[in-house]
Amino acid sequence: METSQKSVTDIRFVCRGTFVHSTAEEALQILEDALLGVDSKGKIAFIGEGTDLQRLSESFGFSSCAVTQLGQHEFFMPGMIDTHIHAPQYSYTGTALDMPLLQWLNTYTFPVESRFQDLEFAKKVYTQVVKRTLRNGTTTACYFATIHTDASLLLGQIANDFGQRALVGKVCMDRNDSVKHYKESSEESQEETCRRFVKELLNKKYPLVKPVVTPRFAPSCTEALLAKLGEMAKNNKLHIQSHISENLEEVEWVKELFPNSESYTDIYHKCNLLTDKTIMAHGCHLSDEELVLFRETGAALSHCPNSNISLCSGVLNVRNVLNHKVKLGLGTDVAGGYSPSILDAVRRALDSSKVLTIQDPEYKTLSFEEVFRLATLGGSQALSLDERTGNFQVGKDFDALRVNVAAPGGPIDLIQNEKPQILLEKFLNLGDDRNIVEVFVAGKKVVPFSEP
Ligand SMILES: Nc1nc2[nH]cnc2c(=O)[nH]1
Ligand SMILES: [Zn+2]
């Protein structure tokens, strides 16, 4: 049993039943008839065996009648982590998937993002995306907003109001934007607006929302802007996010735009943008040397398989990334990826891995347990938030989903007395938000939504 030293009056609630999570050693650890206590700060105070109820209730000072007992087909799993999602693009998710990346950006993305100067429109879309992702079990989201500072701050406020853990980035870009009006109205430079965004968001002191320095990707930024953003992130120990090596046309373009750099990764590295708080989306076409640079700097990748397939960008060799010991999480990449659910990302990651096995039978297909780890603990490591979230280790925040695999009216039929491992596998492959009956972030129930 694991406990932390807590005073006897500190327990907010206790649950008993099956808990499934990942650790560094085990992609899937199943704790049957376990007892987990959450303290008044929303942290996991203890996790032990159900049969230890008497002793635990005495040492932690809670009443054994106040324990919530999970049903036979229920389990708790860690909240899922979306390491890469574009909040404004939620407005057209599920459409516009008929072009490759660079044409897609110019035709659909930039015109839509330019509308986020309008705060009413931003409020509507950002409320929808936060609610939709929370309902789908995303307890932590790493968001791109748009270049608009006020609307990006609004996204931070909405995530805070609904209780979602979030990294929020005001997008920075100072060249190659095809839509001329996709610019902020003020005279401030992109570096200045980023600095103001970071300062104002930090001033709000939201407990679960942090800013992330967000150069869109190398083709949208001059080297001078990349260098200034890298310096700002370094001086203030900020998170960084961007895109890298998503499609081959983009990689070729980057070579033309940065003729003096050894590789795409080298550009970011030279500008101090590869740190242990960096997450780069995609990386489908990175070389082994570039993966080594990721490993050495502690930078992470976000695997966005729905987007990679939908925009015909490429197939990430996840096994190779893991063999290089590069931190890796899953991302939806809405709206390049059409689904806002990390459950979908789990399925597409498994499918993509099987496609690689079809092409090369020697390729070791990912197991559902490994992908479960990517969706939870892997994501927290990729975002450098693993001291706070990602699994049920004592001392971490209780970010969790209460899953009922047999939820009435839900998509899953159970035939016999399925064991927890099978229940999890069925949920990952067949489940949806109807099975996610409660969502907790930092010990607070955030789904079902409380009435305003
Ligand atoms: N998928 C995706 N790739 C990008 N690269 C630069 N911007 C974007 C974006 O919005 N979506
Ligand atoms: Zn993206």
Helix percent reads 25-40%
Please compute the radius of gyration using only Cα atoms: 22 Å
E-strand count: 18
Bound molecules: guanine, zinc ion
Computed structural class: alpha/beta
| Secondary-structure arrangement, i.e. CATH architecture of the largest domain | Alpha-Beta Barrel
Question: How many structural domains does the protein architecture include?
Answer: 2
Shape: globular
* Mean pLDDT over the full residue set: 96
Strand residues, percent: 15-25%
Low-confidence stretches: none
Family: Belongs to the metallo-dependent hydrolases superfamily. ATZ/TRZ family.
Cofactor: Zn(2+)
Pathway: Purine metabolism; guanine degradation; xanthine from guanine: step 1/1
Function: Catalyzes the hydrolytic deamination of guanine, producing xanthine and ammonia.
The gist of it:
By secondary structure, the protein is of the alpha/beta class.
Structural features, described:
There is one protein chain. The chain is α/β, with parallel strands linked by helices and 452 residues long. The protein has 2 domains: 2-78 and 391-447, Urease, subunit C, domain 1 (Roll), CATH 2.30.40.10; 80-382, Alpha-Beta Barrel (TIM Barrel). It contains 14 helices and 18 strands. The chain has helices at 53-60, 101-113, 119-135, 149-162, 190-204, 223-236, 248-257, 264-270, 288-297, 305-310, 318-323, 342-359, 368-382, 420-430, and strands at 2-3, 11-21, 29-39, 44-49, 67-69, 74-78, 80-86, 138-144, 165-169, 171-172, 209-215, 239-244, 278-282, 300-303, 327-330, 400-404, 436-441, 444-447. The strands form 3 sheets. Strands 7, 8, 9, 10, 11, 12, 13, 14 and 15 form a 9-stranded parallel β-sheet that branches. A 5-stranded mixed β-sheet has the order 1-4-3-2-5, sandwiched between helices. It has a 4-stranded antiparallel β-sheet with strand order 6-16-17-18, covered by helices on one side. Helix 5 (190-204) packs parallel to helix 6 (223-236). The protein starts with a strand and ends in a 5-residue tail after the last strand. The model has no long low-confidence stretch (mean pLDDT 96). It binds guanine (GUN) and zinc ion. Guanine binds at residues 86, 101, 105, 109, 216-217, 243, 246, 307, 333, 336. GO terms for molecular function: guanine deaminase activity; zinc ion binding. Pathway: Purine metabolism; guanine degradation; xanthine from guanine: step 1/1. Its cofactor is Zn(2+). Keywords: Hydrolase, Metal-binding, Phosphoprotein, Zinc. Catalyzes the hydrolytic deamination of guanine, producing xanthine and ammonia.
